[in-house]
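Annotated sample (chain length 173).
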Amino acid sequence: MARLNESSLIAARLAARLGHERVYPVDDHTGDIAGHPINEETFGTQMRQIWDNPASAERLAAYQEWQEQVEDGTLSVLEWYRHLNTDEQARLAMRSDFGAAAGSPLPGNAGRKYLAYWETRNLRMVANLRQVIGDERRVLAIVGVSHKPYYERYLRMTSDVRLVDTSVVLKID
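Output written by the structure step:
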């Protein structure tokens, strides 16, 4: 893989360590056109305005603090992931990003277009994951923290998928 991401940095290494033969990619950008047409310049300006909110500032400050603690060795990467995956951080991500986009009064509907793209992408990612799960498989899905609430919401609607709390998975043996 030419790009370093969670597939190469975490998933492939973990799969190899656990003796699994492959990693199934599920990310899907086929819905990127869901919010189109957009004026790139206006859209970018409006999204920066939408994201300029107190919840985003709080989220960024916490992230920077944890990053500094990882760099100085007072916080392990695993502890950092635990912080990122708390319900509190999920709520903050939703308020700072998607909630702010949904409530944006700006003309041009940049927030709504962004949500159309993001929700379509997540629906397709979860559909791809559901296909991989098939029947009687255990699956570890590794996604960015902003995808997690969508995964949980959509997977809870499936008939035979049981979600395990992230804190159970992110433990030190």
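Annotation: The mean pLDDT is 88.
Annotation: Helices lie at 6-18, 40-51, 54-71, 77-84, 87-102, 110-133, 148-155, 166-169.
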